[in-house]
Amino acid sequence: MLKVSDLSIAYTHQEHTLRAVDQLSFELQAGETLGIVGESGSGKSQTLLALLGLLRKNAQIQGEIVFQGKALLQQTEKQWQQIRGKEISMIFQDPMTALNPYLTIGTQLIEVLQHHEQLSYAAAKARTLDMLDQVQIATPKTRLTQYPHECSGGMRQRIMIAMALLCKPTLLLADEPTTALDVTIAAQIIALLKELQRQHQMAIIFVSHNLGVVAQLCQKVHVMYQGKVLEQAKTSELFKHPQHAYTKRLLAALYREDR
Amino acid sequence: MSLRVQSLNIYYPMQKQHMFAKETYMHAVKDLSFSVETGQTLGIVGESGCGKSSVARALLGLQPHLTGEIWWHQHALHDCSDQQWMPLRRDIQMIFQDPLASLDPRFTIEQCIQEPLNALYPELTQIQKQHRVEKMMQRVGLSPELKHRYPHEFSGGQCQRVGIARALIVEPKLLICDEPVSALDVLIQAQIIQLLKELQQALNLTMIFISHDLNVIGQISNQIMVMYLGRLMEWADKTTLQTQAKHPYTQALWNAIPNPFQPQRKTCTLLYGEIPSILTPPSGCVFHTRCPYVMPQCKISPPSYVSLSSTQKTACYLITQDK
Amino acid sequence: MRGLIRVFGMDHMSNLRNSSTAWQRFKKHKAALFSLYLLGVLITAVLVLPEFSPHTYETTDWGAIFSAPTWNNGHWFGTDELGRDVFVRTLIGGRVSILVALLASTVSVVIGVSYGALAGFIGGRVDQWMMRWVDILYSLPFMFFAILLMTFFGRHLSLLFIAIGAISWLDMSRIVRGQTLSLKHKEFIEAARVCGVRTPQIIWRHIVPNTLGIVAIYTTLTIPSVILTESFLSFLGLGVQEPLTSWGVLINQGAQNMSVAWWTLIFPAVFLISTLYCCHFIGDGLRDAFDPKDNASC
């Protein structure tokens, strides 16, 4: 379904060239989850942006991304607008800055459906309420008329997940969605994502700096460092027998006494 | 007992409707009591709205609206004027959460680290101060050649080392760390925690370490205090809290930590619902809205603290029921 | 998808530190750099060039009243209705206008920054009352105040500075107060408190330097408005006394004689407009140079 071959993203500033991503390759089938783990500067967020065509104009991209037969790197902006939100969707780290603070939640969600599926207002509203129910929001009707700042962090993240899943995308990109949340709320969001993935059978690429979170959700893991993939393996394999020294250090940093 | 806090309550004034309206307050921390021995580390853990940062600021005299008592050796910190705080600032220092934001962007590293010396040890000569700054930089793992650089030229981990150098240059006895590693990458976190542990050993520091991450707290603390919405839920020493946590919230916190070695977490141990707003705390036990073991009396009045042993204290009707 | 917000990926470039200073960023703004040099040339001209002219600003050349600009008799910009040399008068007028602008701006910066920083940092009731006082001063009619001052104390140059300076600090104080309010809650201010730094020191060493960026930008925008205010006062006849002149006076007189002697209007006007443009572009360049996004990247 998704095949990335030798993806490289570089930026040139004055005389320096920075390789944000270096020769990244992977494949993803429908219903699979891939975790990308790395610290800041490892290139994981740049990978997600490349998959959505949201890289800056001065990015030098090489390699190939094929998604359901389409060559993503060759898409025009108009073609991208059909893909983004409909076939590939994204949830961000900080829901407060990703939601428009001046529009009600209902407006933002219904707008997505009206744009992509040309639904009438009533039909879009019904679908939206159904989606808010699926993401386990208690009083969906009230939420539609509220503004983002009136909701808590966990609530906003659920709303963002609802917005991303409204058009039933084939691929969901998650850029550290639980990093800005409290521990117990993050645990709820991870359980929610697991449940939704089971229901909708979509592929997820989950980016995080936390190996533990990735272990909860993903079947395959890539460990990235400064743009290069240092290790890629099935999750269970990676945690039982980490090969690379960097992976071992990351695991060691997750100190926890066995209870 | 070097630090003792008794029945601490912290209030924040709420925004007034108009200039002549009456002052109303939000009750951020309620009836908090704890103590710390010399050379020990107390970890304070909790999620947003639990009041841990308010406690840190109260210990530094940065909270104007509080009741209760805070005793540092024989000094009554709750009652000190600005003048009386000056000598105490040599003893009590703090490391902040955002390493870059805690440094003035217009100061060089040398100026940042030297600032407490200028304010608290004015009798030192410039040469003596510079010498101390260089020594301190080496101690925290920074090359003294970097002292003329500016904070934005450094990474998060390096900026935090500067923050640590600045806090320790006056040789304090009590160090308060307000989420010092939350903004850093995982491997850098491990380095900074290691550095803090070494410095604590070397300088016999008493530390209060605040974090929302139980993993991090577990690496560095001797005793751990769990807070929720401004109230103390459980206090225990590290081993007891890790193996025999009694309060449902503490148990939920442990279960919420994603463990790569046990990926299949039992969903029934997850907490549901959102954290209530501190402006409208629930009645009775503040945790009852999310507690999986809630009972009728939990909604009516808050449970009182019970000492389960010399190393564990908690407030929960489940415990008093068992007893 | 219209609802999907673009991610501005600057934070992903953390490895590539932008180590250029504010001056280097300023140099990239070509118009601002050119304006800086032009302003330098203008200031040097008004200070130095009058010495090279054979005429002074007050002597009358009876044989050359309203004479057009010419090279041979030394009246390079022509003469006015009293036969005075327009070249020298323009430059001397420039001295007065620029001096008024600089002094009034200095007054505005000194009072405005101190007042604003103090009000913003102390906060609470003190801040409220200080800002209400500013609001009251805003509502007073400036012209009325200036006329009153001139009438009671005569038309001295120093009074002009005081009158204009007394009004221009109001905007500056509001701006600095706003900046102070946002800086007050930053962690490095709290850190300074914990380090034992006292309040006056915090304001002086931490708050004020961090507002200088915006103060510099605003000052370059204040200067044109001060020059225009002075020109307006001179236009009304409340400015400098004859035979001393300023660009405002010259333009006033020039406008009256425009049909007969265009040079009495055009030359002072060109100088005034050039100075105003230079100040605006320098302000623009300073704003780009002090861009907080670039300063905050790490």
Secondary structure blueprint with pairings:
The complex is a heterotrimer of chains A (259), B (323) and C (298).
Chain A: E1 2-13, E2 16-28, E3 33-37, H1 44-52, E4 60-67, E5 70-71, H2 77-83, E6 88-91, H3 95-98, H4 105-117, H5 121-134, H6 140-144, H7 153-165, E7 171-175, H8 183-200, E8 203-208, H9 211-217, E9 220-225, E10 228-234, H10 235-240, H11 245-253
Parallel strand pairs in A: 3-8, 3-9, 6-7, 7-8
Antiparallel strand pairs in A: 1-2, 1-4, 4-5, 9-10
Helix pairs in contact in A: 4-5, 5-7, 7-8
Chain B: E1 3-13, E2 25-36, E3 41-45, H1 52-59, E4 66-72, E5 75-76, H2 82-88, E6 92-95, H3 109-120, H4 126-139, H5 156-168, E7 174-178, H6 186-203, E8 206-211, H7 214-220, E9 223-228, E10 231-237, H8 238-243, H9 248-256, H10 296-300, E11 306-309, E12 312-314, H11 317-322
Parallel strand pairs in B: 3-8, 3-9, 6-7, 7-8
Antiparallel strand pairs in B: 1-2, 1-4, 4-5, 9-10, 10-12, 11-12
Chain C: H1 22-28, H2 30-48, H3 86-122, H4 124-139, H5 142-153, H6 157-184, H7 187-194, H8 199-235, H9 247-256, H10 263-289, H11 292-296
Helix pairs in contact in C: 1-10, 2-3, 2-10, 3-4, 3-6, 3-8, 3-9, 3-10, 4-6, 5-6, 6-8, 8-9, 8-10, 9-10
